[in-house]
């Protein structure tokens, strides 16, 4: 069994690194693309021949006819959102027949999860996390609290007493928490039970499916959602999502062993963005941030919220490299920097008297840190990088910038994205990406 043909793609910053485009590019070399965590809080944008697809729950591999897509037990599923996404793809001419497998062990998001989330955010006041309001956190809370409802629980249909009991207990708990009109558990139960008829043909044991696929020598691409700094354990807690967006989430969220993973490709933007509250040490609050936001179209793919923008933070990416065991990076959106005279790269932080090369655990301490920058020349006076397909097409200053990112992050860069289309990509020869792309 050759497992080194498999690849995990993970976000090395705060999500929105451009994983959708890179997975779409790599997918034809794989037989299976599998999602292991998160839910429809994710928004993976893929532009193909001028047509835009935004995927939330379904792996980006769905755009390639020969690829089977898998949603693992670690994902939380809003069944209504899943059906809407399937309908949208079908309307865009994507053949979905028999191409999606959903784990019977995945937990569901029900309407009360969104209400509980809204309430929790209101109660946090100024300390709100600015979540995506999709019910992600409360669904994972129910899972950890051992009162969650799984896809397999829907199987009993309208007569399933187990499902009715679970829904009733959860809705009654919600009614004790949320003021105003109580929710009728029977309605929630009826909707959940009804979804089973459409869901059933897609549901199965993902761990077993992947074990057979791997044994048969089928190549698997593991598609991460969000990014290392949003990871529940390793991110800027509590300003994180409620799942493990780092590599461990692949094993627990799909039921595969660590050796199944093969290589790890980290995705990082050529600068940094974050959507929602929490520390962002290199954040710009000037016209420059507005410029990056407009040129890079930095608005959330799921929520439309403007993203906060800042310089590339090597301390963040180094941490992501270490935690994930990243073998190589894909650097995206290099072209967004084209008009800048000068660039900055954060190599560490000054925190009082201390010089830190990694992020402290305490977010208040991190908020108080000041980035230590290196300044590099920009390439505004050249023809720029937009649409470049070969490294030799890049201005010398852009190549120097990439070389410096490699040096300060301690990992090679194998892919550079210079535009939203599939074709606007540089793959460095002999690099990790080249194995799948040439
Ligand atoms: P939640 O995942 O909705 O609970 O949101 C928690 C935090 O993660 C918020 O700051 C969100 O903005 C952020 N977040 C969740 N999913 C994504 C994503 O796919 N991209 C970027 N940020 C995300």
- The helix count comes to 14
Query: Could you name the CATH topology of the largest domain?
Result: Adenylosuccinate Synthetase, Chain A, domain 1
Cofactors, ions, other ligands: inosinic acid
> Main beta sheet: strand number and arrangement?
10 strands, mixed
- Strand line-up of the largest beta sheet: 9-7-5-2-10-1-11-15-19-20
Count of discrete domains: 2
User: How helical, in percent, are the residues?
Assistant: 25-40%
Question: What is the 3D shape?
Answer: globular
**Low-confidence stretches at least 5 residues in length (pLDDT < 50)?**
none
Describe the overall structure.
By secondary structure, the protein is α/β, with parallel strands linked by helices. The chain has two domains: 3-104 and 205-437, Adenylosuccinate Synthetase, subunit A, domain 1 (Adenylosuccinate Synthetase, Chain A, domain 1, 3-Layer(aba) Sandwich); 107-201, Adenylosuccinate Synthetase, subunit A, domain 2 (Orthogonal Bundle), CATH 1.10.300. It is built from 14 helices and 20 strands. The chain has helices spanning 19-26, 79-91, 111-124, 136-144, 161-177, 185-194, 196-199, 206-215, 248-254, 287-295, 314-324, 363-368, 396-409, 434-437; strands spanning 7-11, 32-35, 44-48, 51-55, 68-71, 76-77, 100-103, 107-108, 203-204, 220-223, 263-269, 272-274, 308-310, 312-313, 328-332, 342-351, 354-356, 370-377, 413-417, 425-427. Strands 9-7-5-2-10-1-11-15-19-20 form a ten-stranded mixed beta sheet, with helices on both faces. Strands 14, 16, 17 and 18 form a four-stranded mixed beta sheet that branches. Strands 3-4 form a two-stranded antiparallel sheet. α5 packs across α6. The longest helix has 17 residues, at 161-177. It is globular and about 70 Å long. The mean pLDDT is 95.
């Amino acid at each position: 069994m050759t497992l080194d043909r498999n690849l995990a793609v993970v976000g090395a910053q705060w999500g929105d690194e451009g994983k959708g485009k890179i997975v779409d590019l790599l997918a034809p070399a794989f037989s299976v693309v599998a999602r292991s965590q998160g839910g429809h809080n994710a928004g993976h944008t893929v532009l193909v021949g001028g047509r835009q697809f935004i995927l939330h729950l379904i792996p980006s591999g769905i755009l390639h006819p020969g690829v089977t897509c898998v949603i693992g037990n670690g994902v939380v599923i809003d069944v209504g959102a899943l059906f809407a996404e399937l309908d949208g793809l079908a309307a865009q001419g994507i053949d979905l027949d028999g191409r999606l497998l959903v784990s019977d062990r995945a937990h569901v998001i029900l309407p009360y999860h969104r209400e509980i989330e809204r309430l929790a955010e209101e109660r946090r006041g100024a300390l709100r996390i600015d979540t995506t309001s999709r019910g992600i956190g409360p669904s994972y809370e129910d899972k950890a609290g051992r009162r969650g409802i799984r896809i397999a629980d829907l199987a009993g249909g309208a007569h399933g007493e187990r499902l009715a009991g679970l829904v009733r207990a959860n809705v009654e708990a919600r009614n004790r928490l949320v003021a105003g009109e109580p929710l009728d558990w029977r309605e929630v139960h009826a909707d959940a039970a009804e979804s089973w008829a459409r869901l059933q043909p897609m549901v199965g044991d993902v761990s077993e499916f992947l074990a057979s696929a791997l044994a048969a020598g089928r190549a698997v691409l593991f598609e991460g959602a969000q990014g290392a700094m949003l990871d529940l354990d390793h991110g800027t807690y509590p300003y994180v999502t409620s799942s493990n967006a780092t590599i461990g989430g692949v094993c627990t969220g799909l039921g595969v062993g660590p050796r199944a993973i093969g290589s790890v490709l980290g995705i990082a933007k050529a600068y940094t963005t974050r959507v929602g509250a929490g520390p962002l040490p290199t954040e710009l609050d000037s016209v420059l941030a507005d410029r990056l936001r407009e040129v890079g179209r930095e608005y959330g793919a799921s929520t439309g919220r403007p993203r906060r923008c800042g310089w590339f933070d090597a301390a963040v990416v180094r941490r992501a490299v270490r935690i994930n065991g990243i073998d190589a990076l894909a650097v995206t959106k290099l072209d967004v920097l084209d008009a800048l005279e000068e660039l900055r790269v954060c190599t560490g932080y000054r925190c009082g008297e201390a010089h830190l090369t990694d992020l402290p655990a305490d977010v208040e301490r991190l908020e108080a840190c000041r980035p230590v920058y290196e300044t590099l020349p920009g390439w505004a006076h050249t023809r720029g990088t937009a649409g470049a397909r070969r490294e030799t097409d890049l201005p010398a200053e852009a190549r120097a910038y990439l070389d410096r990112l490699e040096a300060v992050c301690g990992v090679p860069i194998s892919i550079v994205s210079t535009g939203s289309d599939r074709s606007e990509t540089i793959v460095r020869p002999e690099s990790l990406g080249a194995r799948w792309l040439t």
